[in-house]
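yo

u said u wanted the structure for the complex thing, so here. seqs first:
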Amino acid sequence: MSTTEDLYAGSSETTEGRVFTVTGQDWDSIAEGLAEDEVLERIVVNMGPQHPSTHGVLRLILELEGETVTEARCGIGYLHTGIEKNMEYRSWTQGVTFCTRMDYLSPFYNEMSYVLGVERLLDIEEDIPEKAQVMRVLLMELNRISSHLVAIATGGMEIGALTVMTIGFRERELVLDLFELITGLRMNHAFIRPGGVAQDLPPGALDEIRSFIALMKKRLPEYADLCNANPIFKARLEGVGHLDLAGCLALGMSGPVLRSTGYPWDLRKTEPYSGYETYDFDVQTWDTSDSYGRFRIRLNEMWESLRIVEQAADRLAKLDGAPVMVADKKIAWPSQLAIGSDGMGNSLDHIRHIMGESMEALIHHFKLVTEGFRVPAGQVYVPVESPRGELGAHVVSDGGTRPFRAHFRDPSFTNLQATSVMAEGGMVADVIVAIASIDPVMGGVDR
Amino acid sequence: MSENDHTDQTPENVPAQTGEVHEVGVRHGMFGVRGSGDTSGYGGLVKPILFPGDAQRPFGGWHDEVADALEQAGRAAGLEVATPRVVIHRGEITFHVRREDLLTVAQVLRDDERLRFEFCSGVSGVHYPDDTGAELHAVYHLLSMTHNRRIRLEVSAPDSDPHIPSIVSVYPTNDWHERETFDMFGIVFDGHPALTRILMPDDWPGHPQRKDYPLGGIPVEYKGGSVPPPDQRRSYN
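structre next:
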């Protein structure tokens, strides 16, 4: 079969010479074309958006010279769902339900940045009960562990280290079980609400958290044993995806990529929120500015997160029965739901109160649930240190019951811009490693 | 509102502590009903939408230092109006900059050693359809890691001339952020190296985050009832 008749590998004559278009797996046709003593100068490879190694629906357009990447560009937007626009059509509380779905590997951070923004606009930052603060920290740090586990697991899978993937997802499942116990959902929790958190800690949760910590202390060294000094792992990661401090600042990089240059920038230390200044933990850095350093930072940060989770669990043990929602009845959700025998969330006491005892309570419930609360006009920007870097929410209110505008500065979106810098001039196989070291989550990139 | 009502206002409901208030629109009624049908009496309610007004010196804390340094460095860089409008709300400082000054201001903010805002958290667009003559706003959040300070720059452009200079030459990180804001609001960032759509398809008509762009959606039927799409449901305003 000649190359010109192949449905999946056609070629056409242009003024610049012969151009092959390969859309299937038929590289034979190119090899045949090359054999016809034509000099192939330039190969443009479209990688993704459906490709197992691009970390989600990310499209890469690579220009190759042999196996060397001369230009790398990203195509994004395949997971754009209009979350920011949708939030403008829901109440302030309902907004949490949307933004938790952006970066689906770190939902609590999405909720947190938005909720902190709403709380600052409401000027109730000082009124959030201590237990809600501690629970937020506990959930966020558990989330950092689960997110870093996926980063390491998928990063390992993409370079062929399948065991790293299987054990990574094994441990992540344990964290998701904790989330399910505490919030009712494995992902997309919508648990952190303006004014506090949706629910109190269920009975037995602290015991589960403690046994998880004990188990993780045994399991985390496995990653170090498997990878830290593994010659193949190091050969694939060391020196790959290099980006120094000046490059990081110019490109607005944050999180593990920035810390891999040796700069200990962590918003939990520099601009503490939710009482992070009262926890004992260290900022992890590395000084190689490469993918290997970012891997080691993630590994070390999981240990630091375990330390914080431990401290938070100790504090929660002393806060039994304390409120988890702000005292202001104009903001706090009126009922505390519990799962009934039918599997639905309900509060029989609250229903008895509003339906049988107090007309005013019924009116209040109706107003707050359907209309919601009003937030004074103004704008705020609140950043939190997500597992991927600075996740900031720009929240604008016009004094109404809905966000006038909510914009998220997602670290994946910003950090993905470094693909070109990290990949160009390197080998095509290193593009995968470089992108895995950024750990972009396309849900957050495209929102 | 009469004079003696002021005592009933709680502090958080006062839109501005100092200076002039900034009106960006008017809110009518309360239950989202237009025309007739609202017999509650609230339908006739007319309230201006007031954003926090200009702050007056002293701003307090490091805000004065930054404002002074920006003023001096801006004048040294040849800006005609070196004093931008300043708003302080909830402890965050906003500098309202004329769009023709934006590039110079960004350069000064990054390079002056008293300012050193090395890190830009991108640009966020906001569409105020009733803010006549300044419908489109571009909001930049800057961070000085040296001094651990955050400020906000706000630039506006009219709908009829949606041009704002690009600051990619100063903050390369704004490349994608400006493309996103162009994509979503139609703000043209002059001087951007390749201002194309980034999230929406290349041939998409319109700019989805603008307030005049509908949310879209279809009615959903459930157990015999029909729920209209979110932007057509009754809402409180």
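The mean pLDDT of chain A is 87. Chain A touches chain B through 52 residues (CB under 8 Å).
cya
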